Amino acid sequence: MVQRIDVTGAEGVRLAAWQFREPVPEADPRPGVLLLHGLMGRASHWAGTAQWLGERRRVVALDQRGHGHSDRPPAGAAQHTTLGREAFVADAEAAVEQLGLAPVTLIGHSMGALTAWQLAARRPDLVEALVICDMRASALGAASQRDWEDWFHLWPLPFPTQDAARRWFGEDDPRVERPDPGRGAFFAEVMHESADGWRPLFSRRQMLTARETWVHDAHWEELAQVRCPTLVVRGLDGELGRAEAQEMVRVLPAGRYAEIPDAGHYLHYDQPAAWRAVLEPFLDDIPAPAP
Fold first, then answer.
1. Percent of the chain with pLDDT strictly greater than 90
2. Cα–Cα–Cα angle for 112, 274, 62, nearest 5°?
3. Which residues contact 100 (CB under 8 A, 6 or more apart)?
C-alpha cells in the first residue's frame, strides 16, 4: 500500500511524499525512515527497499523538488537558489518535521545522500542514523559538469516506447561499457508518455543547474559534523571509489563501511538482495530512542 502525502518545502514548493505502509493505527509508533533518491531519480525507485523496510518501520520516500510528482521551481534567474543545496536540505527537513518522522533514519542515494548528510550535520536533533549510498565527498569539478551537459545532448528523445528508453540507458548509451539492466530500469522509470513519445519527468536543464550547485565543492567538513551512526555503501563498480569511501568512514565519528560486488552506481537496482544484506544489520543495530 502506498499513500501520497503532500509536504510544503522551501519557498512553498509542493513536494510529493510517498508513505509505504501496512494498515497501522493513525499514530504510527514505528521508527521513521526517509528515503532520498538521487539526481534524476524519483521516490518509486525505493519501492523494493521500502517493501521490506516497511515490515518494522514507518517508511516515507520523497520526490525531491524538480523530480517525480513534486513541483518544478519556476524557470528564472533564481534557479541556482531554488535548485541549490539549501533548498534541497530545507525540503528534507520539512518532510521530517511535517510528517513527524523524527528521530529519523535517512537513507540517501547519490545526490540524495549528500542532502541526507547535510541535514544530519545541521539538525542532529532530527536524525538518529544515516546511510550514504554511492556518493562522493570530493569535488567533481568543471570537467565533470561539461561531461554531463554533453551526455544530455546524446539522449535520443523522444523514445518511441518505455522499453526503448530501457534499452538505450542499459545497453546503447555510449557511457555503458557492458549491458547494465539496473541502469536501464532506473531510467525507464523516470520516463513518462507524452504526445510525441517518452520523455523524462524532469527538466534536464534544471538537473544541470542542481548539480552545478554542489559539483564544484568538497563536502568533507559537513560530513565530519555528522554524529549519528552512519553506513557508507558503495557498489564495487560504482562512482565512489574504495579509498574515498574508507576515508569518509574515517572522517565520520561513527562511520561504518560496506561494499556490494557486481554492482554499479544504481546498486539497489543491481543487487537488491545484497543491498538488503548490508543495510538490515546496520539498521537493526541502531539504538532505540530514549522514551
1. 91
2. 25
3. 32
In percent, how much of the chain has pLDDT > 70?
A: 96
Helices 85-98 and 111-122: crossing angle, nearest 10°? Answer: 70
Is it the case that residue 77 has pLDDT exceeding 70?
A: no
Q: Cell numbers at residue 95, please?
A: 518532510
> pTM for the full model?
0.96
Phi, psi of 62 (to 5 degrees): -110, 130
User: Is residue 139's pLDDT more than 60?
Assistant: yes
Q: Which pLDDT score is estimated for 24?
A: 56
Report residue 192 as a C-alpha cell. Answer: 513518462
Cβ contact 3:55 at 8 Å:
no
Residues 89-122: pLDDT tens digits? Answer: 999 999 999 999 999 999 999 999 999 999 999 9
**pLDDT computed for residue 74 by the predictor:** 84
Task: Please give the single-letter amino acid code of residue 203.
Answer: S
The set of cell numbers assigned to 246 is 574508507
